[in-house]
Amino acid sequence: MDSGDFAAVLSTVREFVREVVVPAEDVIEETDEIPERIRGAAAGMGLFGYTVPEEYGGLGCDAEQDARLAMELGYTTPSFRSMFGTNNGIAGQVLVNFGTERQKAEFLPRMAAGECVASFALTEPEAGSDPSGLRTRAVRDGDDYVIDGHKRFITNADRSDVLMVFARTGEAGPKGISVFAVDTRTPGVTVGPRDKKMGQRGSHTSEIHFDGVRVPASRLIGEVENEGFAAAMRSLAKGRLHIAACCVGLAQRLVDESVRYAASAKQGGTVIGTFQQVQAMIADSQTELMAGRALVLSAARAYDDGTDRRIGPSSAKLFCSEMAGRVADRAVQIHGGSGYMHGVPVERLYRDARLYRIYEGTSEVQKLIIARNLMREVATR
């Protein structure tokens, strides 16, 4: 996207988040729903397809623009970003990077317009951050594939129109995985009830069961078998940059809440922001926030120019998700007993922050990715 156009989009989103979504956070928390007026406004701003290429009706944001936008989206409840995150991220990127032209034309324009919600159906009971052990299977039967299996923790499954379903078509391990675009209303697809989560209310995950689901061979992404693992890894790598940027936005909100509270709350008649221990916590959080922002933007630029699409995204996701957790913990500590009470933003944000260290690859898996890629670089010199 042109830098001038992007600046306008960024400004609009920033204003909308802070003036419309933030005031609605308590309602979202209580109802576990994003108000339809907010959903409609997000679609009108193009947020359901901001990374979709412009030729398919999206805004065409690159990785750095995605990161800058995610920092603004991350400032409020994660459920706001989540309602269109799968379209722009892990599900949409499967189509953008691996779909045929016909597949892109079928789905991407509707996704960009907010008329179609896509979900990324990878995780299973025995295959999470490492998908190589997945058991969902797709068997060729004439002009179709028949899919049987079970997915869990699938974001937006209850509102999804199309699922990017990863299934085994070949040998065990990562090489035998393919990915299919499956209409959620296809006979044999059963979406379970919403999961009851610790935090991120308003963002929904569910289990999905596939029982003899018949899918046309034309819905095999790329119309090539056994490319699913590559599609998952590339989509997740870009998604990790996005999640890292969301963590930066969350940390900024937590720092703002902490400073605001410390500047007004008193103990013994003294404003707590004058206490050195409180100042130290604020300083630590601000320093980590600035480091995280710089890391994300550097990694995003390297992703865009193709110099690093593995180590950088994992490093950013590892550092920023852990950083956001520490900043959230300090924010609660600065608020004291008030920070432990429902209705106080930092209490909710503390719970929301915890998931960032788990989804799109746990912190432990990010460490493996970073180290293994560094060792591989040495071995190939």
Automatic annotation (TrEMBL):
- Gene3D superfamilies, alphabetically? Acyl-CoA dehydrogenase/oxidase, N-terminal domain, Butyryl-CoA Dehydrogenase, subunit A, domain 2, Butyryl-CoA Dehydrogenase, subunit A, domain 3
Q: Where is the Acyl-CoA dehydrogenase/oxidase C-terminal domain?
A: 226-374
Q: Which residues form the signal peptide?
A: none
Q: Name one GO molecular function term.
A: oxidoreductase activity
Q: EC number(s) for this protein?
A: 1.-.-.-
| Acyl-CoA oxidase/dehydrogenase middle domain boundaries | 119-213
- Which Pfam family, an example, fits this chain? Acyl-CoA_dh_M
Q: Where is the Acyl-CoA dehydrogenase/oxidase N-terminal domain?
A: 8-115
Required cofactor(s):
FAD
What family classification does the UniProt entry report for this protein?
Answer: Belongs to the acyl-CoA dehydrogenase family.
Q: What is this protein called?
A: Acyl-CoA dehydrogenase family protein
